[in-house]
Amino acid sequence: MSTLNSEKLIIAFHKLSNFLLSPDEDFNSVIRSAPNHNAWFTVEEVTRSLASLQEMLQLPALEKWFENISVTSSPKKVGLILAGNIPMVGFHDVLSVLATGNIALIKLSSSDSQLLPALLKKLVSFEPLLQDQIEYVERLTGFDAIIATGSNNTSRYFEYYFGKVPNIIRKNRNSVAVLDGRESVAEIAALGHDIFDYFGLGCRNVSKVYLPEGYEIKNFFEPLESFSPVINHFKYNNNYDYNKSIYLVNSVTHFDNGFLLVKQDEGLTSPLAVLFTETYTDLDALSQQLEQKEEQIQCVLTQTELKFSKGTLTLGQGQHPALWDYADHVDTIAFLNGLQTV
């Protein structure tokens, strides 16, 4: 069906990376109109997402990634149920299907229905043969495999309907940070990006920070001041006001710096505009605790020597995934390559 090979795909993906350095007017108009379709998708946050994709699609990274990719000549139809929590969050799944030579049956999220098609249209302009591998669908039928991203609730629905075909079904995950009190002002400021980028809506956003006993919270708040403009976004502000009122009415102990509420809580999933904290006394014991919650954790960010089986990232790197940083630590390429043996 297709004469695409690794070399052609690498060239096309890298051309897209170069394009993102200087988008044309048509694409810029899509970026400018994004907030009209989803208020969370401000021009700043869409631009942030595109910069992350541009960084991801650098030539050395593409060449390394393709070392483990088999471009099939017998494509399977892979249904993709995409999330819409942050701009173009489903792009990597689409890219993986295209890279392996398979056909992407794309069920767009209503929250992100404009940006991704515009991005893929540009990709097809660089390699027209990819057009045969992209199909947008309202209802998934005739698929050989499924990759579905949703909540813990929707995952049960997905497992019921798609459990009989090869699948990757993703659930809720959150990211955590671990501090030891020796972090510099610059390192805490970098952590601010892990907390506030995309308004904290992504699974790679830090929703909880583990602090050593006796940690002075002012050492945490002061470096984050540069992120205070987040409160000017009406949807974020609404969440901040709502959670603040709940805590005040119920006399819940918390800290408040005017744009972020910080509350001690053993949970991992904090409400929007809220950051959970928990204290620890021993790094090894904390490591064991995090391993027990591994299925709920996307990333662990830290400057410490904390051991975590899935690896850790330095503060500020949460929203800079590489091509091989697979969601939920499930190797999408290995899954797609394996479809040929099914």
UniProtKB/TrEMBL annotation:
Family annotation (InterPro entries): Ald_DH/histidinol_DH (IPR016161), CoA_reduct_LuxC (IPR008670)
Superkingdom, natural source: Bacteria
Keywords from the named record: Coiled coil, NADP
Coiled coil stretches, renumbered: 276-303
Keyword NADP among UniProt keywords: yes
This protein's record includes keyword RNA-binding: no
GO molecular function terms noted in the UniProt entry: acyl-CoA dehydrogenase activity
UniProt name for this protein: Acyl-CoA reductase
Naturally occurring in which organism (per UniProt): Pedobacter antarcticus 4BY
